[in-house]
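Summary: Need help interpreting a holo structure output

Steps to reproduce:
1. Submit the protein chain below together with the SMILES for zinc ion.
2. Request a joint structure prediction with the ligand placed.
3. Inspect the structure token block that comes back.

Expected: a single structure record containing both the chain and the bound molecule.
Actual: see attached output.

Input attached:
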Amino acid sequence: MVKAIKVMLLPNNVQKTKMFQYAGASRFAYNWALAREKENYEKGGRFISDSELRKEFTKLRHSDEYAWLLNISNNVTKQAIKDACTAYKNFFKGLQKFPRFKSKKRSMPKFYQDNVKIRFSSTHIKFEGFSSSRKANKQKINWVRLAEHGRIPTDAKYMNPRISFDGLNWWISVCVEFPDCRETLHDDGVGIDLGIKDFAVCSDGVKYKNINKSQKVRKLEKQKRRLQRSISRSYEKNKKGESYCKTNNVIKKERLLLKLNHRLTNIRKNYLNQTISEIVNRKPRFICIEDLNVSGMMKNRHLSKAVQEQKFFRFRKQLEYKCSDKGIQLIVADWFYPSSKLCSCCGNIKRNLKLSDRIYRCECGNIMDRDFQAAINLKAYGERFAG
Ligand SMILES: [Zn+2]
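--- attached output ---
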């Protein structure tokens, strides 16, 4: 199975400068290729293949005006041109909107490295062409330290290595092929009810609480709101006529806000991944979840924020991926299946169940926690369809 690995980089200042240069060249080549295609199309010409464009670009590299491009490894710009062509083709196939030019302000700095030439040691990653000198001490510049040691295998076939900057740190993401490891699964399956009060309730009785209600996250959210208000006040204060002015103080605060946002995302992501791997590592035969109508829930203005923070969509994607890795069957219950309205004892359906009814009381004498009952019902649903 192919797995994507993303690891933070710890470049020194020389390397950081080089990385921004590479990202800039990549952006330049992308925009150049897109502009060429567009111009050609408006003249009534047909699609220019990326090999033709690359030949043209090589000539450009050797002209005096664009001499700075010669300092950048060829593979960076080559891939950027390929990407532009793919995006352009996808537009004509109707797969995406017309590709936008990458602006310096808006786009994320990123670039590609050749998947054959890239090297990894357990602690470092080797880039191409940071230093052209053959001296050993100069060659060191090519090796950038990794924040996590031994995470990326050193002797593997690498696919699509990309380096990107998220506003604070540089990251490498690369795909690596891993051998399949099929484990023996238990006979029992599990049903999972997702919700806002508790994040997930499993039919085996395990509950995962809502991380957004924890003290830590609430404190961070409060800090975030304060900082946002303070930034907008600073903007108002330094307003010159109609235009806003970015003072050093604002830059400092915006950086803090970015850090805070990253921290919150990391906490949520981490919690999600831990929950999923805990469920999957219990090796159930199947997992049954309900088909959540996320876009419908987002329309409810009382729920939208809570739903957004829970990242249900991400949960499902990640669960699909983990299940296929372990060979667990994932069953998504039909949208009309009344998982929380159904009584698990007598099969009665309670139509008038409100969202505020946390305890399910049935005429047959069954009294149960609403979410737990839903999880049990989902398990029963899964049993019917599991192979
Ligand atoms: Zn009942």
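--- end attachment ---

Reviewer comment: The CA atoms of residues 34 and 84 lie 6 Å apart. The mean pLDDT is 89.
Status: needs-info
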